[in-house]
Amino acid sequence: MNTQARQRIVLKVGSALIAPDRQGCSSRYLLSIAQFIVRCRTEGFQVILVSSGSIAAGAHRFPVQSADNASDPQAQLALKKAMAAAGQTEMMATWDKFFDFPTAQVLLTHADLRDRERYLSIRDTLSTLLDHGILPIVNENDTVTTDKLKVGDNDNLSAMVAAAVDARSLVICSDIDGLFDSNPHLNADAKLIPEVTQIDASIYAMAGGSHSDVGTGGMITKIQAAEKAVSHGIDTYIVNGFKEASFNELLRGKNPGTLFRGSASPMLERLHWFTHTVRAEGEVVVASEDAVRSAEDCVNISSSEVLEVKGTFAEGDTIVLCSDDGKRLAKARSNYSSRLLKFIAKQDDSKLIDSFTHDRGLVAAQDIALLSPDAQPLEEKS
């Protein structure tokens, strides 16, 4: 791992390691992970633990019915939230018993991260905990989150947290040794990819699903997380969390899995937050991909170039500008609601259109992130 003066490591641990049998928390795999955290702190690293597992840890408290086979979707969701509430305290207690230093629970939703003021508050809180020798244990707040508010997986959450605290390294635990060129559970000849310097379509093509049936993330979400982290200059490791040797190798400065090299030219902090953390609420399709080649082009898009408005969003919400051939061009703050933009897009009267748009462009100039047309989507579209 990177050994510069001030070290912050974010370690992500999944549900299959916390509660492998969904019968409450188990120390079977967690002891070696806890020892890794202790040794990191002894060597001067500041550690943040992003820990999944509240639902898996709490499932045994609800033996009458399973959230996976409840017939009513609303009841199924409520049951999972209840499991998360019961399991979160058990999970925190399990982690706490491994350490002779204090821990702190930090529960987040995507709404916390995408709001700039709350995002900065999270960063300050985590930094203060670290500076006082307290181990932050972060999880998504599954008890209260909704589809609109959730991150969805703790792989991507860990990358957002790593960027927020300006971590040097992100370690994501998996059920396999790292990224392979094909699924090692299905292909005995699959080869481990030890290092990745550029994440592109070929890297995503190698990512298959997770073998575990306990967690919600797979290799795809881990690559998405790595893409977020490396663009902030954070070295990212995907390692086998079931093997104690993985953590021993990391402490020896070795790479036991797949290392994604952090960018030598990381994004500016606010631009990274806007690109990789803020979620787009809709899309605006413009006449051609040539309409957007720079941030200035985004600001200067005319209403006559708007072909279609997708989704429902308010003035000030984030949108993605797309070309009519489906390429994602830029992410920006909309100066108009979706309802007003849809009305404007249908008008043929240029004077009427100008009466709406003469004072300001389609998008605000403050937050604009240009997107590579061929890049993997930065977030799943709902």
* Number of spatially distinct domains: 2
Strand residue content:
15-25%
Secondary structure: helix percent: 25-40%
Largest sheet, in brief, is: 8 strands, mixed
- Structural class of the helix and strand makeup? alpha/beta
* Shape, per Cα inertia axes: globular
pLDDT below 50 for ≥5 consecutive residues: which ranges? Answer: 209-217, 373-382
- Compressed to H and E, one letter per element, the order equals EHHEHHEHHEHEEHHEHEHEHEEEHHE
What is the name of the CATH superfamily of the largest domain?
Answer: Acetylglutamate kinase-like
CATH topology of the largest domain: Carbamate kinase
Compute the number of strand runs. 13
Distance between the termini: 36 Å
Named CATH architecture of the largest domain: 3-Layer(aba) Sandwich
Please provide a brief summary of the model:
By secondary structure, the protein is of the alpha/beta class. The chain has helices at 15-18, 30-42, 54-58, 73-96, 110-114, 116-131, 154-164, 201-206, 219-230, 244-251, 269-276, 295-299, 338-345, 350-357, and strands at residues 7-13, 45-51, 103-108, 135-140, 169-174, 195-196, 235-240, 258-260, 282-286, 306-311, 318-323, 328-334, 363-370.
